[in-house]
Design goal:
single chain; about 55 residues; three-stranded antiparallel beta sheet; two-stranded antiparallel sheet; about 0% helix; elongated
Length: about 55
């Protein structure tokens, strides 16, 4: 499943494909921290629920 996170620095939308964890259909793993693809600013993934892309 793909999720979208907004950069806290520039407001750009960054997309990540979540990896399903275990056999639960509603548990996903995404990077805990990531660099924005627009401004290269360091961001941290917020707590779920996340916005699906």
């Amino acid at each position: 499943m793909e999720f979208v996170f907004e950069c806290g620095w520039c407001g750009g939308d960054n997309f990540f494909v979540g990896r399903q964890v275990g056999f639960w259909v509603d548990k996903w793993e995404v990077p805990a921290e990531w660099d924005c693809r627009f401004c290269d600013g360091l961001n941290y993934t917020p707590d779920p629920p996340w916005t699906e892309a």
